[in-house]
Amino acid sequence: MINLLAYFTANFVILGLSLLCSIISIFLILWVWHKKPLSKESPSFSLALWISFADFPLRIIDVLTNPLAFGQSPPPMDAGYARFLTWFNMFSLMWFIALNAMIVLDLQLVIFHRLPRHARIRSRYPAIAAASSAFFSVWYLILPDYRFLENGTITVSSPGSPAQRFFLLWFTIWLPIILLYMVGVVAAILITLFRTQAQLRRFALDSTSRQRSQTLLRNARLIIAYPILCTVLFVPYAVGQFQAAWDAQSSLDLTLFINFLFSLQGVANLVILLFHPVMLSAYRHNLIGLPSFLSTQASASSGLPSNGLAFAGTKPVDHHLKSLDMGPAVTCHFGTVMEKCATTIGDETRHSAVDIDKASDPVFLSMMQSSGGSTSECDTLIDDESAFL
């Protein structure tokens, strides 16, 4: 039997740690934005800021539903408070989910649809997430007859009424649909990345080009950690919602496990942020003091040639940030164009290397020109700048 007093006490402590981690995440992102404004062009980095902000309303919900928060003076259990608590809870959950879904959407558009870097939609992801969250949650403000039950749960209207069915099913139906979308896109991205990595091994690339292309693939894998975390958090919650919707016996252990997972959200977000490609770039360029256990990771993920191989006249910091967060024409790595380009590569002929500083896509221009192949297919994509992830 779980000691509920010990559980809620520990949960209260974890809530404070989660809030602290979210504050640290916000500070880190704003500091990198201040020191390197180019990092604002990364949609995933901007969305990471809003994901950190989204942790605050979720922690407020945890406090309002924690029996230790009010002691001997519980809040008024009236209809207005029940309505507010339900709406605020649904908006907070949907906001966090929608922000992660925007990261998945951006990855999908970049990798599979060659979305240009400066596409207008990319600056509107936070607004789209907020608007969709408001749409999904606003209906809970207009449902009739809110009330608390004896066990502390909230219901509306009379049993079996359309309002009560909507109350139980609206979020229960949409949550798994969004989760399945994120899982499907992430799986497709991973398959594409591994396939692309296998194709790159067949190309006779110089060390710099190979390092850059491997960095681009690694960065996409780092960024999808956000939707993976969201899925891990909300799959148990979706199971609990289905149990409640179909009048199944709700498991206390499952409920406590869900609350514990949500309490760790801010901590997990900070860990993922520390390994975001833009953060790795910030470590490498001493924008933020780097702990020793991360120094090796930052160096390995640089995607830049060593000092002895650096090209004269380049701007290493800006270029580095671009290459780390899926810079110009990166979609040339992911489409069928790669296979078309590969067919034009000679097995034996090699000429002088291309000036990477003047090339939009160092991997393919180096690959094609060093082998004497045609770049016509790749040029089409190189002229169309791809996106920061």
TrEMBL record:
Keywords: Membrane, Transmembrane, Transmembrane helix. The chain crosses the membrane at residues 12-33, 84-105, 125-142, 167-194, 220-239, 254-275. This is Uncharacterized protein. It comes from Tieghemiomyces parasiticus.
